[in-house]
Every structure is written in structure tokens, then in C-alpha cells.
Amino acid sequence: MATTSSHPPTTTEPAPAGTARRLAGLAAVLGPLLLGAAFLISPYDTNADADEIARVIAAHQGATEASVWLWTVGTVVLAPGLIAVGLLATARSAKLGLWGSVLFGTGLLAITATPSLDAVALGALDKGVDVDTLAKVAKGTNDLLVVGVPILYFIAAHVIGAILLGVALLRSRTVPVWAAWLLILAMPFNVAGYASGIDPVTVLSFVMLAVPFGYAALAFVRHGTGWVRSNP
Predict the structure, then answer these.
(1) Which of 45, 99, 123, 170 has the fewest CB atoms within 10 Å distance of its CB?
(2) What is the mean pLDDT of the chain?
(3) 134 φ, ψ to 5°?
(4) SS3 for 224?
(5) 76, 65 Cβ separation under 8 angstroms
(6) What is the pLDDT of residue 4?
């Protein structure tokens, strides 16, 4: 005797893209580009010593403040974009996507938990602190263990996290192969550019991040993650 289920079959057809999905997709592209713009207009080389950085900031306070604003807004915007890309990668490759998302995300949290020396410098200069004192404060802050450890974690976590996300998207063919490789290579380029003080390389690394994030965001907006809810 044939029986029929009281529950309709689960469908894999995604729901139409809503506002939240569209905004998250936009954020995945816009976030990295804003971070790249922050480095593009920053007035000092990232490998400069504290004395030089303090003097350059004192001479270019407007550019420094604009860079701080771009970095702050870019980090906030990137967060929902990373969630969208991370959900998509996790749906395609559970372990790689999840670990990649966790490492990249906690890396960003770690670096945002450290003091923004640009903002501290601008505040100190506004109150009349001389450049020599400012340089000593910057060096002393950077030498603190509570600052150094999160920075080291950020360096490792955002590089490994981006690589894992790239491999997850590569293996699942969610984005073009070349775009997945851009994601895999983006954050190693980021570290290389920052450590060497070659700003164009640092800026390029964020563009390299924005492109595969954009492809992933397009898939996310069009098709969702691919997960479906089963009926109770």
C-alpha cells in the first residue's frame, strides 16, 4: 500500500535575493576597496620608524584623518561581506570555509582591538604634544605585549583564513579558478607590501581580495548559500 508524506519535499531552489543579501554582497566588494583606499592616501610608509611616522603625521594631519576614517568604515563594511563569503564557502566546503571564516574574522577583531596610533597621534597633536614625545608614545605602545600579540595573531590569522577561503571556493568551483587564486595570494601580498613599505603592493592586495569576494558575492546574491531549511 502506497503512503504519502505529510511534509512537502525540501527544495534547493533559493529564495529571491532580498535587501540583506544585496547589501552583504555589496559590502564584500566595497570593504576591501575602502581598506585599500586607506593605505593609498596614508602619508607615511608602513616600514618607517616611530620618529619618521610621527613627523609625517604632524605634517599631513588631514590625509591621516581621512585614512583613519576609510580604515574604520572599511572594516565595519567588510564584516557583513566576510560573513556572506564565509557562509557561501562553508556551504560548499564545511571545514575549510568555517576555519577560513573564523580565522579571517577573528584576525580582523584582533587588529581592531589594538590602539589606532594614527588616531592617538592626531589627538595628541591637537592638544599640543610635541613630535618627539609623540614618537616615544608610539614606540612604547608598539612595544607592549598586549599590542604585539594581537598584531602577530592578525598577521597569521588573516593570511591563513583568506587562503582557506580561497581553497574552499577553488575546490567547489564557486568562483573562477583565477579569482580563487587571487584570494589565496591576496593576503600574503598584503603582509609583504606592509612589511616592505611598498604601498602599491598593499593597495593591490586589497584589490586582489575585492575581485574574488565580488564573484563570491554575486553567487551569494543570485543563489544564496545553497543551504535550505527542512520542514519540522
Answers:
(1) 123
(2) 89
(3) -60, -40
(4) coil
(5) no
(6) 43
**Ordered DSSP codes for 135-150:** HHHHHHHHT-HHHHHH
pLDDT at 226: 67
Per DSSP, the three-state class of 218 is: helix
C-alpha distances (whole Å) from 170 to each of 54, 91, 92, 177, 204 are 43, 13, 10, 6, 21
3-state secondary structure of 18: coil
Inter-CA distances, 60 with 38, 53, 173, Å: 14, 10, 45
Q: Which residue is listed with cell 581598506?
A: 35
Q: Which three cell numbers stand for residue 113?
A: 582591538
> DSSP character for 1?
-
State the amino acid at position 188 in one-letter form.
P
Helices 94-112 & 61-92 angle (0-180, nearest 10): 160
Is-contact 30 211, C-beta < 8 A?
no
| Each residue's pLDDT tens digit, 212-230 | 999 999 998 887 776 644 4
Are 117 and 95 spatial neighbours (Cβ–Cβ below 8 Å)? Answer: no
